[in-house]
Structure formats: structure tokens, C-alpha cells
Design a protein that fits this description.
The protein folds into two domains: 7-63 and 290-378, Aspartate Aminotransferase, domain 1; 66-285, Type I PLP-dependent aspartate aminotransferase-like (Major domain) (Aspartate Aminotransferase, domain 2, 3-Layer(aba) Sandwich). It is globular. It is built from 15 helices and 13 strands. The chain is 38% helix and 14% strand. The structure holds pyridoxal-5'-phosphate. The site of pyridoxal-5'-phosphate has 16 residues, from α6.
């Protein structure tokens, strides 16, 4: 059975309060990956010590491509001006790159904003927010602002979104959030499943497909063709991941114009940093960026998987630049022990208390990860924990980040 609750619920508050940083993050309207990543290691967004390996926030160590770097340098003298036309130029070239019309595209400083605005526009105390567990948590935090009930549904056995269970769990749904590849598992939800969701969803509800990591996986799995077919969905893309521009801030919502119009009044529409606009436009002109970086990432990821297999560990079959690793130990202990070795890994999802999210960094990062992980695991004791099944009707418990079990949330 899905878990259904509001963030005012005591158990939900306990779920969020695993560190000072998490508590601080939960006070913000838009909660995003760097806040959640910092919360997992009690760092409160401080600097990492010199020599650290930072593979905790699904960032791209390659940074912006050469064309984007040149564009960034070249725009500096114009930094005193708003240059509105640069946003129009990017809107047009982005629309062309994904095969839609400019009126189907809205540019934002990242995809966190349109994600939040979608929750604000389409959920309310009467219309719930439906998401996967484990899934990217940002929209659950936004539901605190909209008052929308949060409905969480376990992934299927192949780590896809369980569309029939999501539909059954929320006849009052306002927004279905489908993250593909899913953060934190890195696994895709098939296009046919998204089509099924659109065909069977309650009247008046909207589907939000978050494709932040799709360039690392299979671009043909995109749901943008369903926007072209005028369906009730918003697709999110970002320049933070394969394009290496997380710190520069550029993202897009792709949807029917009437849906775009519902997002913008929620807080969009102000001037974009011109640095983000020119770097994104230049990145789109780079013919080989996506295939080259996809290959670099998959080569390092598969090498890491080979090593983990050789050591007897299991992990999610990710197609993205991160994966979930079963440490078979309370995950918080492993995160802390790795941090003591200056290797900062990702956070925990309470539904999988022995799993850690690992971002795929450079080969040198992953070599350092392997050495530190081998040393940390050598003397620690394993525990076994059965993953919840995806079947609707199954109960699951929630855990604090240190592995402590919480009282079951009403379902
Ligand atoms: N969606 C997913 C699934 C993410 O993991 C992230 C960040 O990591 C975002 C959206 C937001 O990223 P940004 O605001 O940098 O585009």
C-alpha cells in the first residue's frame, strides 16, 4: 500500500530531521540536491576539506564544455545589462533541439524552480502529489507550501515507477511526479508506462516527467513527444547534469502553452543570469558533448560496477551518473566513516536504510572511493534488510538516517 501523509505529520517531520542542515533545508520553499546532499553529512553547506573526493550530489566533475567557457568569458563585459533577447535566443534554440515550438518552452535558472512551480500550480489541500519511493524528494518539500497530500509508492522490482499502484493510490491526484532516470536509482521508467499514466490518470491531473539525467541514459525514452501530442504533462530538463552547469543555473520546462502559463505566475519570468543563457546556448551548439560525456560516464560507472561485483556488493542497474549501493550496514555509519576519509558520498532514503547513493565522478574519484569503501567495510558488521516489495497493499516501515525504525506512517 502506498504511504499517504502530509508533511505536517509527526513521522514525516522526524524523517526530515536527520541533521541540522536537513531541518534548515525543510524551512525553504525550494529544496534541492545540494541542500539534501549537505544534510546527509551534517555539513550545513560548508566547504569540503582540501583533497576531498566529492561524489555526493550528482554533479558533473567535467564542468561546462569549452564552447560554454568561451561564451562565459565573452559575456562578462555585458554583465551590466539584462540582455533579454538572450533568453529568447536560448528558448528558440532549445525548442529546436528537442523538436518543439518556442511557445512550448520556458527557461528557468535550473529545473528546481519549475519543479516547485509545478507542485504549487497543480497540487493543493484537495489535490495530492504522487511520487515514487525512493525518489527525488524536492517536490515532497514543495507540497508543504501547496498543502498537497504526499502519496509515496514503492518502485517496481525493475526499479521503474509503479504506474498502476500510483494510479490506485491517489484518485485525488493533482500531480504525478515521474523522475526518469530516477534519482536515486538511476533507472528508467518505460515510455509505455508514462503513456499508460496519461491515459488513465484522474481528470484534471497533470504528469511531471523529470528528465534531469536522461542524456546519460537513452534519449529516445524521452516523454517530449507526448508534449507534442498535446498531453497533460510537463517535462523538465536541466543544464546542471550532462552539460556540467550546476553552478551556472539553467533549466527548462517543456509543455503545452496553457500549462507553461500556469507555472510562470508561481514565481518564474524574472531576468535570467546572462552567463547561464550564453553558456547553455553554446553547449547546445556542441555536436559531440552529449555522446562523449555519456560514454565517459558509462565507462567509469561500469568499471566501478565490475569492482563492486567482484567484492560481492549489489547495486541498482543505473543508466545515469549515480547509483544506489547496498552496503548491508546502517548506511549513516558508512557515510560518516567515508567522510572521515574525506570521501563524501550521497545520502540515504529511509525506505532503503542500508543503501547509499554514490555519484559517478572521475576515474580518480572512483579509485579513491573504492579504496576508502574497502577500508571502511573491512571491519564493520553486516545486517540484512529485505527491500519492500512494489506490490500495492504491502506495508513498509520508515527509518531515520541512522537506521532507527520510525513508527509506521498511516496508510
Ligand atoms: N531533478 C532531479 C531529479 C535532480 O536530481 C535535480 C538535482 O540534482 C534537479 C531536478 C534540480 O537540479 P537543477 O535545479 O540544478 O536543475
Amino acid at each position: 500500500m502506498s504511504s499517504t501523509h502530509t508533511l505536517r505529520n509527526d513521522s514525516r517531520r522526524a524523517f526530515l530531521k536527520f541533521s541540522v542542515a536537513a531541518a534548515a533545508a525543510s524551512a525553504f520553499r525550494i529544496v534541492n540536491e545540494p541542500m539534501l546532499a549537505a544534510a546527509a553529512v551534517d555539513r550545513d553547506m560548508q566547504h569540503f576539506p582540501p583533497g576531498s573526493v566529492v561524489i555526493n550530489a550528482n554533479e558533473n566533475p567535467l564542468g561546462p564544455c569549452d564552447l560554454a567557457r568561451k561564451a562565459l568569458n565573452d559575456i562578462i563585459p555585458d554583465g551590466g545589462r539584462y540582455c533579454w533577447w538572450l533568453k529568447d535566443e536560448l528558448t528558440k534554440s532549445f525548442a529546436e533541439s528537442v523538436g518543439v515550438k518556442p511557445e512550448n518552452v520556458a527557461i528557468f535558472p535550473g529545473s528546481s524552480e519549475p519543479l516547485h512551480f509545478s507542485v504549487m500550480a497543480f497540487t493543493s489541500p484537495k489535490r495530492s502529489y504522487v511520487t515514487a519511493d525512493p525518489g527525488y524528494e524536492s517536490g515532497m518539500h514543495s507540497s508543504k507550501s501547496s498543502g498537497g497530500r504526499v502519496v509515496t509508492v514503492p518502485l517496481t522490482k525493475t526499479y521503474a515507477h509503479d504506474i498502476p499502484a500510483m494510479l490506485a493510490a491517489a484518485p485525488d491526484a493533482g500531480l504525478f511526479y515521474v523522475c526518469t532516470p530516477n534519482n536515486p536509482t538511476g533507472t528508467l521508467t518505460p515510455h509505455s508506462a508514462i503513456e499508460e499514466l496519461l491515459a488513465k490518470k484522474p481528470a484534471g491531473s497533470t504528469v511531471l516527467v523529470d528528465e534531469a539525467y536522461i542524456h546519460f541514459a537513452d534519449l529516445t525514452a524521452t516523454a517530449i513527444d507526448l508534449v507534442k501530442a498535446d498531453q497533460d504533462l510537463v517535462v523538465l530538463r536541466t543544464f546542471s547534469k550532462i552539460y556540467g552547469m550546476a553552478g551556472i543555473r539553467c533549466g527548462a520546462a517543456i509543455a503545452r502553452p496553457d500549462l507553461i502559463q500556469k507555472l510562470v505566475p508561481q514565481g518564474g519570468g524574472s531576468a535570467m543570469p546572462i552567463t547561464a543563457l550564453v553558456a547553455a546556448s553554446a553547449s547546445l551548439k556542441h555536436e559531440h558533448l552529449v555522446p562523449e560525456r555519456k560514454l565517459i560516464n558509462s565507462t567509469i560507472r561500469e568499471k566501478t560496477f565490475d569492482w563492486l561485483r567482484s567484492q560481492g556488493y549489489s547495486f541498482t542497474p543505473s543508466q545515469a551518473n549515480f547509483f544506489m549501493l547496498d552496503a548491508k550496514r546502517p548506511a549513516k555509519q558508512v557515510i560518516d566513516a567515508m567522510a572521515a576519509q574525506k570521501v563524501f558520498i550521497g545520502r540515504i532514503w529511509p525506505v532503503w536504510p542500508t543503501h547509499l547513493r554514490i555519484t559517478v565522478g572521475t576515474q580518480a574519484d572512483m579509485d579513491a572511493f573504492q579504496s576508502a569503501f574497502a577500508a571502511v567495510m573491512k571491519n564493520s558488521t553486516s545486517v540484512s534488510y529485505a527491500l519492500p516489495t512494489s506490490a500495492a497493499g504491502s506495508h513498509r516501515d520508515s527509518f531515520l538516517a541512522d537506521g532507527t525504525m520510525l513508527p509506521r506512517i498511516s496508510s
